[in-house]
Amino acid sequence: MEKSWNPNFHLVIHNRSSENLNSGDILYIKELIKRDYPITLVNLSLQYEEYIPFLRQFDIGLAMYVPYTSDSHYDGKNFAEIGYSSGKFNTYLMLGLPALVTENRSFLELALEFDYGYVFGEFDEIPRLLEKIMNNYTHHASEALRLYTQKMNPDMFMGEYIKALCS
Description:
With 167 residues, the chain is of the alpha/beta class.
């Protein structure tokens, strides 16, 4: 980030846990802020009804996930593939926000059909991909919304889901 961050982009990091305020990553972010990098660290636990208005103020969503698995019965394909970033990604799409997402099979398959943003493999790709999104913002925003409308909107599947549960 230090070498290639475009100062025209302001990075907002939503840290929803006050328990990690002294972690190495958070301390590093705070150091970058002290050195006048365009970063804001928001330490705020939001209720669901507050989350959507909070996200509406942004232009692009970042859904980053480093795969994690263990022998725990709580870990499964979701944690190996996409983990907690799936909810962020879906919410960005619902709001028509183009997204930058870490590389995994699910995001790559969706990117073949929908130009919702970009999938990246290395963090140093982010500045270039932000520029690409902004250069064609309206297109990426409409594709994000199209993806949500056609594939990700849970309302499309709720009837079938309830019918299956009740049968």
